[in-house]
Specification:
Length: 364
C-alpha cells in the first residue's frame, strides 16, 4: 500500500462576511413581485447557513449587480487565484515543508473559465518564492463540489506512482460571482444564493513519513463513481449573463441513490465498515442527511446539537456555507484534532454528474 499522508488543510475565506439576513433582505427587495417568494425564502432559511464569506461586497456589480459575463468571469478567476496564493503558505507550514519540496500541484476550480488555468498561474506567481517550474500539474476544471475529494484521490495515485513525492492540493472557488446571478429566479436559485460562499483551501499529501511530523490522515483506499442517467440533476450552464448553477427539484433525493454503490465499496472486505469519523462535503442539509443514512451513523447523543460523526460538516455549513469543492477540505481541517490514532473514517464528496469521490482514512 502506498504511503499517502494528508497534513492539516489551511483555509482562506473571502474577506466579506455576509449573514443570512443580508442575503434574504436583498432577495426580498430585489424580487418583491416574484410569485411564492415567501415560500422560497422559508426554504432558503432552512439550509441552516448562518454566515458565508464573499470576496467582494454583496452589492458589488459582480455579485448582486448587473456585471457582464466577461466581468463576472474575470472577477471570479482573479479572486480565486488571490485566495489560492494566500492559502498555500499556511498549508506548507502545516506540513512542515517549503515550496521547493513540492513535486506536484493538483488544482480544482470551476467558477470561471480561463487559459492558462489555476495550476499554471500558481506556479507563475509562486516561482519567485521557490515553487519549481518542472513539477507535475493536474488541473481539474469542472468537478465543482466534488473537486476537493477528487483531488485527494489523484494525489493518492500520484504518490503511489512516485513514492516519496509531496503533492500540493489547492481548491479555489468564487461562488458568489457564479451563483448570485440576478437573472436567476427559480426556487433552486434562491436556495443557492444563500447557500454558497467563497474560499480557497490548500493541503499537502506526502508520500513519506518524517520524524516529528505530527498527526496526519493516511489515505488507505479511494473510490470514484458516476451515477447513471443524472447528467442534468446538478449542472453548470453558461450564457451571455454568466455562469449559472442549475438543479432539478428531485436533485437531493437522487443523491440518496448513490448509497448502494457506496456501501458496496465501503464493505468490500466482507465486514460492515463503521467509521469512527466522517468528513463529508457540506453541500446542504439534504446531502448531509443522505450521507448520514448511507454511512449508517447518527447525530450523536444530542441530536439537536449534532454531536455525531458529521458534526464538523454541519458546523462548516452553518459558519461558511457550501464552499464547493473546498468544502470537504474545510471539514477535514475541522476534524483534525479529535480522532485517536488508529481511528478509521471516510471522506466523501458529491458533485455534478452526479459524480462522487471518496477516501478511506486512518488517523496516524
Amino acid at each position: 500500500m502506498p504511503i499517502a499522508l494528508i497534513a492539516r488543510p489551511y483555509v482562506e475565506l473571502g474577506e466579506h462576511s455576509v449573514s443570512m439576513d443580508d442575503v434574504t433582505e436583498d432577495i426580498a427587495r430585489r424580487y418583491a413581485d416574484l410569485p411564492r417568494l415567501a415560500a422560497y425564502l422559508r426554504t432558503a432559511r432552512a439550509t441552516g447557513v448562518r454566515t458565508r464569506y464573499f470576496t467582494r461586497p454583496l452589492h458589488s456589480e459582480t455579485v448582486a449587480g448587473d456585471a457582464t459575463f466577461e466581468d463576472r468571469n474575470r472577477a471570479a478567476y482573479d479572486d480565486a487565484l488571490e485566495m489560492a496564493v494566500r492559502a498555500v503558505p499556511g498549508a506548507l507550514e502545516n506540513a512542515g515543508l517549503a515550496l521547493e519540496d513540492i513535486d506536484c500541484v493538483i488544482t480544482s476550480h470551476a467558477t470561471s473559465w480561463t487559459a492558462p488555468s489555476l495550476d499554471t498561474d500558481l506556479i507563475r506567481t509562486l516561482a519567485p518564492q521557490g515553487l519549481r517550474p518542472d513539477i507535475a500539474r493536474i488541473p481539474l476544471s469542472s468537478y465543482a463540489c466534488a473537486g476537493g475529494a477528487q483531488a485527494l484521490t489523484l494525489a493518492y495515485e500520484h504518490v503511489a506512482a512516485h513514492p516519496g513525492a509531496h503533492v500540493l492540493v489547492v481548491v479555489a472557488e468564487c461562488l458568489s460571482a457564479a451563483t448570485y446571478n440576478p437573472v436567476d429566479t427559480s426556487r433552486e436559485s434562491m436556495i443557492y444564493k444563500v447557500l454558497f460562499g467563497d474560499s480557497a483551501v490548500a493541503c499537502v499529501v506526502s508520500g513519506q513519513e518524517r520524524d516529528g511530523q505530527g498527526p496526519r490522515f493516511r489515505i488507505d483506499d479511494t473510490w470514484q463513481y458516476v451515477l447513471p442517467d443524472t447528467r442534468t440533476v446538478f449542472e453548470g450552464r453558461l450564457d451571455s449573463y454568466g455562469l449559472h448553477f442549475d438543479s432539478t427539484r428531485d436533485a437531493t433525493r437522487t443523491i440518496g441513490t448513490v448509497a448502494p454503490a457506496l456501501r458496496e465499496w465501503l464493505d468490500g472486505e466482507g465486514t460492515e465498515f463503521a467509521p469512527d469519523f466522517c468528513v463529508v462535503h457540506a453541500g446542504g442539509p439534504a446531502i448531509l442527511n443522505h450521507a448520514q443514512t448511507a454511512l449508517r451513523v447518527d447525530n450523536g447523543p444530542n441530536a439537536e446539537a449534532r454531536t455525531g460523526p458529521l458534526r464538523h460538516s454541519w458546523d462548516s455549513l452553518e459558519l461558511c456555507g457550501n464552499l464547493g469543492g473546498a468544502s470537504v477540505l474545510d471539514v477535514l481541517r475541522r476534524s483534525f484534532d479529535e480522532p485517536a490514532p488508529g481511528d478509521q473514517g471516510v471522506l466523501l464528496g458529491y458533485g455534478p454528474g452526479i459524480s462522487v469521490a471518496a477516501c478511506k482514512l486512518t488517523r496516524t
